[in-house]
Amino acid sequence: MNHTKLRQDFPILDQIVNDEPLIYLDNAATTQKPIPVLQAMDDYYHHNNANVHRGVHTLAERATTQYENARETTRRFINARETAEVLFTRGATTSLNWVAQSMGELVVHEGDEIVISYMEHHANIVPWQQLAKKKKATLKYIALTAEGELNLDDAKAQITEKTAIVALTHVSNVLGVINPIQELTAYAHQKGAVMVVDGAQATPHMPVDVQALDCDFYAFSGHKMCGPTGIGVLYGKRHWLEQMEPIEFGGEMINFVHLQDSTWSELPWKFEAGTPNMAGAIGLAAAIDYLENIGLSAIHDYEAELVAYVLPKLAAIDGVTIYGPTDPAKHTGVIAFNLDDVHPHDVATAMDMQGIAVRAGHHCAQPLLKYLDVSATARASFYFYNTKAEADAFIEAVYATKEFFQHGTI
Ligand code: PMP
């Protein structure tokens, strides 16, 4: 990975914050956008902007072609069988809500069980709570091991013939662990359950093949993988999407509208009511091209190297607690930690004074933090554009922060 060259693609990273060079370690929240992504969207608005699907004029055709090409790029990226299985949404949250509402209507009945885990993001908890309440179903949680991995024995105990849906995150946005989705999907299917995967923290960092995973649904967001905000994806297997009712109704998603009733368009447009986010989809496709150009395996390997470098250094600081495995081989670039006797918000503020962007709070995972018996943590999350020098600066800043709160100087 040639960082000197690569970082020229991210002008935002080259700036001074609080008199220090910016070190952006909040990539689990959102990632920065390389010039080719900005250019693709700019180019679209400069030259090709028109509403899609309905027009016969040249610009409408160009916009439609670009939008549908973006869908094909996305299909190839996750290795879906066909573009009919790739729905554009606003982001992972919307994708998961669509599945919970529409698929929930189809397969969840009174007395059924929905199984999630303690490490889920709120986006993969709250929609299932709402569904469980509506259907008088039970929401169950898979326990974690002491190291913060999914407890697979408990997963097998929780997923039973009563389970209608299993919904799990591929990669945790707090603990940094990768879950064995392929194995869990096979187990869920064996019990007759539908498998939904929250891939928001996976697609930016490693190759994902939905056919190999065999999950029924896979959700992710563009903005966490160098793409723009406001665009995301819901992959679903055709036979489910065909049976499901759309969640939103209006233009674009219909075939015929009669006075009292309407018929739906074919997949994938049946789910995409209203004018879609064309520029967003085009930006996402440019982000996919950008990541694929570097190589998702290369990104994964580089981040693994970075974690192997920084995690032991962080763990070695007296008074630091790391949440999730301390074995770097089991850890992605998301590192949640606390410093004894210092509130994580104070840690994040002190780091910001040193030019380093980290997040503090509950990371939209309140049940997990309660499970870990902690009210908040600091979180540094690395991406492929972060360097070892930045990792060193991060470690130094944690030492300096500790020193500051002990003796009042940075
Ligand atoms: N799931 C996980 C694991 C996440 O980290 C996030 C974003 N923090 C989401 C879902 C929700 O993504 P978005 O806010 O882009 O819809």
What does it look like?
The protein is α/β, with parallel strands linked by helices and 410 residues long. The protein folds into two domains: 3-25 and 295-407, Aspartate Aminotransferase, domain 1; 38-292, Aspartate Aminotransferase, domain 2 (3-Layer(aba) Sandwich). It has helices at residues 3-6, 35-48, 58-78, 92-107, 126-135, 152-158, 181-190, 210-213, 238-243, 278-294, 296-315, 344-353, 366-371, 388-407, and strands at residues 16-17, 20-21, 23-24, 86-89, 113-117, 138-142, 163-169, 194-198, 217-221, 232-236, 254-257, 262-264, 320-323, 334-339, 356-357, 359-361, 377-381. The strands form five sheets. A seven-stranded mixed beta sheet has the order 4-10-9-8-7-5-6, sandwiched between helices. A four-stranded antiparallel beta sheet has the order 13-14-17-16, covered by helices on one side. α7 links the parallel β7 and β8 (194-198). α4 runs parallel beside α5 and α11 (296-315) packs parallel to α14 (388-407). It is globular. The model has no long low-confidence stretch (mean pLDDT 96). It binds 4'-deoxy-4'-aminopyridoxal-5'-phosphate.
